[in-house]
Each structure stands twice: as structure tokens, then as C-alpha cells.
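W.,

You were right to be curious about this one. When I first looked at the sequence I had no strong expectations either way, so I just let the prediction run and decided to look at it fresh. Below is the sequence, 168 residues in total, followed by the output.
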Amino acid sequence: MAYTFRQATRNDIPVIWTILQQAILRRKADGSEQWQDGYPNQAVVQQDIANGYGYVLTEGDTILGYTAVMINNEPAYADIQGKWLTDGDFVVYHRVAIDEGQLGKGLAQAMLKEIEGWALRHNVHSVRADTNFDNPGMLKIFEKLGYSYCGEVFFRGSARKAFEKVLP
């Protein structure tokens, strides 16, 4: 299948928000604390898109997943309890979510590989991300794609596991 990874537009917001709401409910059903505090919300998605950070994975005209991607724009990462693998520029992504009807197809991995390509096109050779300790799906993807555990970072009062992958 041919996927496209493109910048999201304002017209994509209703579909993106539906996908994120599905993911929030899945996290809750899994017994996770992640995304159960009113974040992410529609205002966050609108801000992502206004800032040029929102990206969608599509097949044809169908949006399959959403994420926010940025360079060096994560202040919480400066205070890691641990150590990053690199000290230079990095791409960071947040809010990875796949449409419920598309689960089990490896799309989260496909999207993370697209982010790696995006990083290299921007001449950045480090990709960083974090997730909750109780998100086994994302933890497994990090392991599968060769990310290294670097320590903990803190968001909204909660510790998150932080990972980095150095790209060639």
C-alpha cells in the first residue's frame, strides 16, 4: 500500500479529532492513565495545525493516523532524569494515534518511519519521543524500531518514559 505523510490542514481537524477521541477511549479501556486528563483536546490539534506541526498518514484521501512533529520544540526534554544519546538537534513527535478501523496493520510503525524520513530531509539525525509507563503498544513499537530508553521526562506532573533513536 502507498501511504502519504503530509502536513495536516484545518479541513482535517474533524477526522483527526475523531481519531484522537478513539485513541483516548482505547487508552482508558486498556486501564491506562495516559490521555485521561483532558489532553489532548481539540484546541491542541488546532494549535498543532496553526503552528505547522500536525501531520497525517493517508491512503488516498483517507486519513489513517495523526501525529504532531517538530524540531527541538520540547522544553520538558531539557530536564530528563537520565541522559539523551545525542546533544544536537532532534525531531520530537507527540500524539500518535491511528484510526480504530485501521488498527493491526502496522500503521503506527509506518508513521514513525515516515517521521524518521522527515527528520533526515530536515538534516536532523535524532528522533525523540516519550510515552506513559502503561502504554505497552507504544513501548513495543519503540523497541521494535530500535529506540533506546534514555530516562524519564515529566509532563503535567507525571513521569513519562523517554526514548531516542539516532538516525544514520
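Here's what jumped out at me. The radius of gyration is 15 Å. And, maybe more interesting for your project: The chain has one domain: 4-166.

Coffee later to discuss?

I.
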